[in-house]
Design goal:
34% of the residues lie in helices and 21% in strands. With 479 residues, the chain is an alpha+beta fold. It is globular.
């Protein structure tokens, strides 16, 4: 039997302007975790959440994480944990979000103050963090408030975990989650987890994401001369590091995205018929891809193969060269040392250590073929594992029913090409299913100038978060 949600939905509509004002207050706090000078603002944002949650009747704790690694005089922002309800007869759902944001300045291309929520005639709400991730975070607060003011009890026990360092590597969070997931910890009673820190595939149809690619990021350095040299004096008489680097980078991947490193593609899990059947029904076109990329330089001619390339197959991307001349104009320099940066997006069943070994062997073999007198060094900068869940799990089917109730359409089941490392951390630490339930759309420009969240996504998204709690409270635990 479908839960009675009309009263909740009406209350969300009634409170919509106050919910927008709550988001406005959150956006106004420049909680930039990457900027040490803004650390006080990150803490201010945590205090804002503590105050709001306390007013909503939640038990709230601000948990310190200690000094920031490498910056011992700078304290990490606290993790805010909260509990609303503790009925042992109810299921317990753990939700995660982050209250820090990416840097933003007028000079970056914002037409207005990035920390002043600006709403245009089409309901687009512009402001840093509006979509990533303050909108979804305060969306959970909105859901609690709408229930309270509608005289409705939350159908589950709600646990919340909001961190302030996601945009700077979530330093300190993994250990915290692992500790709190153990018996007696704050998260120990969770039956399932939900993260709202991703986006719809398009702008009209909601989705549920059940997979993420991992990422192994490498530095490839070539050094030779003791310093940068004048090409007019040394050009043609010395082996140049840049030449070696460009030749090496060119061996890694071809124009059509095929990874040339032996053994990489052989690690990929084969496509099942069940998985293959998902792609044809996804509401997406090549025109959507062209709009998102700003070009028609696609590799594949159909949406199915394009989505597979983005989600379930590995990719190798070359990102840049450190130490090379990159400004406008002309400079006739021979760099003494250059460092190429590239990464491999990993998928099931690739193992990070085996990927590293294959990369190291291939690059060393290719460098040896050059016969260069320069010195080469290849190393891993950082890595994060891939993640995939079952979209047939009761946590997902409940969310699917909630989406259909609010938006009138079944959500697409998608995977994402990027990484949200905390997803895997929660899954491993709690041993429970993790759901990715996005609020924002593909055009929100998170991390970019003019980040926005559509009013429709915010208000209807708040309805969806609350509806999800009702459906997940009753969904049969069949998977």
């Amino acid at each position: 039997m479908a839960p009675q949600l009309d009263g909740y939905f009406k209350q969300v509509d009634k409170l919509s302007e106050s919910f927008i004002d709550r988001l406005r207050k959150a956006v106004a706090i420049p909680s930039i975790s990457a900027d040490a000078e803004r650390r006080k603002d990150v803490v201010k944002m945590s205090d804002f959440l503590v105050s709001e949650l306390t007013a909503l009747g939640a038990h709230v704790e601000s948990r310190p994480l200690g000094p920031q690694p490498g910056k011992e005089n700078l304290e990490l922002p606290p993790v805010i944990v909260a509990r609303h309800g503790s009925d042992p007869k109810k299921r317990t759902i753990l939700v995660y979000g982050h209250y820090d944001v990416q840097p933003a300045n007028i000079e970056d291309g914002w037409p207005q103050d990035p920390f002043k929520l600006t709403i245009d005639k089409n309901g687009r709400m512009y402001g840093r963090g509006s979509s990533d991730d303050k909108g979804p975070v305060v969306g959970w607060l909105n859901a609690i408030q709408a229930h309270r003011e509608a005289g409705l009890e939350l159908p589950i026990n709600l646990l919340m975990c909001f961190e302030g360092m996601e945009e700077y590597g979530s330093e300190g969070l993994d250990d915290f989650i692992e500790k709190e997931a153990k018996p007696g910890g704050f998260f120990a009673q969770a039956d399932a987890c939900c993260i709202s820190d991703n986006y719809w595939l398009g702008t009209e149809k909601p989705c549920l994401a059940y997979g993420l690619r991992g990422c192994n990021y490498y530095s490839l350095s070539i050094s030779g001369p003791g310093q940068d040299l004048h090409s007019g004096i040394f050009g043609g008489a010395i082996q140049e590091p840049m030449t070696d680097l460009v030749r090496l980078l060119g061996t890694l991947v071809d124009t059509d995205g095929n990874i040339k490193i032996p053994g990489i593609n052989e690690m990929v899990a084969p496509m099942t018929e069940d998985e293959k059947s998902i792609y044809g029904n996804i509401d997406y076109t090549m025109a959507d891809f062209h709009e998102a990329s700003g070009s028609k330089t696609h590799i594949h001619d159909n949406k199915e193969r394009t989505l597979m390339a983005r989600w379930r197959y590995p990719s190798l991307s070359v990102h840049g060269i450190e130490g090379a001349f990159s400004q406008s104009g002309a400079k006739t320099v021979i760099p003494g040392k250059v460092i190429g940066k590239f990464s491999i997006r990993t998928v099931p069943d690739m193992e990070s250590d085996k990927v590293d070994s294959a990369v190291y062997k291939y690059v060393k073999d290719e460098f040896a073929k050059l016969g260069s007198k320069n010195t080469m060094k290849i190393e891993l900068q950082h890595s994060g594992n891939w993640w995939v869940a079952s979209p047939k799990h009761w946590n997902y089917t409940a969310a699917g029913r909630a989406v259909e109730r609010v938006f009138g359409v079944k959500p697409d089941l998608t995977r994402e090409g990027g990484s949200i490392p905390v997803t895997l951390t929660f899954e491993k630490a709690t041993g429970k299913n993790v759901l990715l339930l996005p609020m924002g759309s593909s055009t929100d420009a998170a991390h970019s100038a003019n980040e926005k969240l559509d009013r429709r996504n915010y208000i209807e998204g708040t309805k969806c978060l609350g509806a999800y709690l009702h459906y997940v409270a009753k969904e049969e635990m069949k998977a």
